[in-house]
Amino acid sequence: MDAWLRELFPASVAGVALVAVGGLGRRECAPHADLDLVLLHAGVPGMDELAASLWYPIWDARLGLDHSVRTLPEALSVAHDDVKVALGLLDARHIAGDADLTASLAAAAADQWRRTAIRQLPALRSVTTARWEAHGELAFLLEGDLKEAAGGLRDVGVLRGIARSGVTDALRPAVRAAHLRLLDTRDALHIAVGRRVDRLVAQERFAVAGLLGLDDGDALLRRVASDARTVANALDDAWRAADRVRVIRRRGGDGKPLRRPVARDVVEQDGELVLARTAIGARPDPSLSLRVAAAAATTRLPISRATCEWLAAYCPPLPSPWPASALAALITLLGSGAGLVPAWETCDRYGLVDGWLPEWARMRSLPQHNPVHRFTLDRHLVQAAAEATGFTREVDRPDLLLLAAFLHDVGKGLPGDHSTAGAPVAAAVAARIGLPAADVALIEKLVRLHLLLPEVATRRDLSDPKTIAAVASAVGDATTLDLLHGLARADARATGPAAWSDWKGRLIDTLVRLTHTALDTGVLPALPTPDPALVEGPLPAVHLDGDRVAVAAADRRGLLAAVAGCLALHRLDVRGADVSTVEDRALVEFVTSPRYGTSPDPIALANDLRRAVAGDVSVTQRLRGRGGRSAGSGAPPRVVWHRDAATDAVVLELRAADSPALLYRVASALDEAGASVRAARISTLGGDVVDAFYLVGIGAGEAAVEAAVLAAAAS
Predict the structure, then answer these.
(1) Whole-model pTM over 0.90
(2) For a Cys-Cys bond, which of 96, 538, 630, 690 suits 659, CB 3.0-4.6 Å?
(3) How, if at all, do strands 65-71 and 35-41 pair?
(4) Model confidence over 117-130: pLDDT tens digits?
């Protein structure tokens, strides 16, 4: 690239230099990266024509170009006012023309940066934080931007700028190695796609992994996550170093650091936690690293780099079972709320967590491919414990709630159902950290049942006494029920916004209330009575009330499908459905939510519903010809039968990719197969659904009904 640009540059022009910045300036050219060039001159006339003679051939070659034409004072002035330009000039490298002019720019830009860095760094930090908010954390994203996300290549440039300011050595060997691997990943991505792209999307992972010599896409994601964490943590250290410099300059006087005890063996010094001198001189307590982490999490202060390195080198391993001081420190750490995540990340970076929990290495940076999840497995577990602190006052054993939240998904990545596989792993951890046998058994039970409440609440008929009896039998007592309730909410919050909704929360609350009644009194709920507004009055009747859609009509086959089709036309997703018959009228009630966030016109919806239930097929005919356009995985749909889950029905559970009008197609198939639907529970998990239909009377037999449902789901 240098040679080609030199050919474009006219040899006869004096007082002008072509300067590379950015990737070309650093000699880090990606296969399809843009060129960042500065045409530097000493007040030479005719620069517009010279610039055009350079830029147009570059554009003709279909290369991206970021360019500027400036004198030396102009370049320094812009750098003084724009921190991003100031960083860019630190990479200035001579390409062609007046080499002395380029050398003057590089020297002056570096000198100006060193003199003004302390003033400029807050602005750089603000710009960096805004970028993180826009692009997220690369370590925890399934499809992260290798350049712009937190921990990406752009942050290495920030680290380079901080290092050039003299504040701290921000580019340690581990950071340099992570930087090179991220550059390799971006290069492989450009080659695989054939154009400039920095977002590592799912469909390119396999090709990129192959070019990098990795086994598969998961291995690639784990390597990217590890490198991004290294960069992000180094940048946290660098910001703190800059803050300390400003504090020291403001302090004046003798310049001695201010020290303040914050916990046993832990002292705050210049905004960081360090070990007390007595802790360093004596043989360390095995629980010391956990106690330091707990102090960091509760005070929201970072642990100094030197302290982390000392703990990793000299803190002895914990015995099995742990001493009481270590268990108490772990509970304090997990119960610290928002302070938990940064403290845990710091300890994990220096290898302390592996000493506490050998199982952590298997879970570190393990991707979770369900789009509902926003974090890797290890971060999800830590986040769940942090979220559980919001429910500790609602349970009898807050310590066990924190531990269960932290351990609930330890079975992921192991063969089989992760709840079943994770229960013995969680029990082994609970025993090793020093819990008594009864608490170990309860932790095992909580991990095994951690999905019970959300799955039953969203997939079963809560008005059926058999549903409540089954949950009460599985849970066994009110203490366990309350712990599972808190765990379900913490898990959902840590998963991401798509994992929770007011509708789901109301269902789980209802299930918990009914189960509490059954456990306390032995009384099971009675089957609900129909809404009087639907039982009386002329037909058809339509009632719209927020997310509730209720319809009463003359009893006939195909009513459920007609209503479901009408709702699909108005872009309403169905969350639950109840069907009942009173004398000669059928009652259908739905819980809905707008598919795209905007509620439909209620008058138009009511009119279409009346026409549809009256038998006007023109309403649902508008759905024909619309493809399913499944949003979920490529796995085929599946049917699971639950023959003992209901009092008066057999439950057909459909697991399939979500798509518009899916319920309409399935309900139509059930109707054509002669199966009557008493109730339905519709649960959406990212791009997939788990729909449960309570069938009363299966005219064509289970095999024929299953075949019809699978065909409808796949269409």
Answers:
(1) no
(2) 630
(3) parallel
(4) 888 889 899 999 99
Q: Across all residues in the chain, what is the average pLDDT? A: 90
Residue among 404, 403, 431 at smallest CA distance from 333: 403
Is 526 contained in some domain? no
For residue range 414-445, list pLDDT tens digits in order: 999 999 999 999 999 999 999 999 999 999 99
In a domain, 320, yes or no: yes
> If you compute the radius of gyration of the chain from its CA atoms, what whole number of angstroms results?
32
Instruction: Tell whether 128 is covered by a domain.
Output: no
Structural domain of 268? 262-356
Q: How sure is the predictor about 249, in pLDDT bands with cuts at 50, 70 and 90?
A: low
Determine contact, residues 270/258, Cβ cutoff 8 Å: yes
The Cβ of residue 24 has, within 10 Å, a number of other Cβ atoms equal to 21
Identify whether residues 430 and 456 lie together within a single domain. Answer: yes
Total domain count, the chain: 6
Residue 528: pLDDT band with limits 50, 70, 90 = low
Q: Are residues 517 and 368 in the same domain?
A: yes
621/555 same-domain check? yes
Residues 110 and 143 both lie in one domain:
no
Query: Which domain-ending residue is among 596, 625, 654?
Result: 625
pLDDT band at 26 (very low <50, low <70, confident <90, very high): very high
Confidence of residue 631 (pLDDT cuts 50, 70, 90): very low
Same domain for 274 and 348, yes or no, is yes
Residue 259 pLDDT:
82
**From CA 109, how far away is CA 86, in angstroms rounded?**
7
Got the DSSP string for 522-588? -PPPPPPPPPHHHHSSSSSEEEEETTEEEEEEE--TTHHHHHHHHHHHTTEEEEEEEEEEETTEEEE
Rounded to an integer, what distance in angstroms lies between the CA atom of residue 379 and that of residue 556?
Answer: 52
d(CA 238, CA 170) in angstroms, rounded, equals 6
CA dihedral 340→234→35→110, nearest 10 degrees, is 130
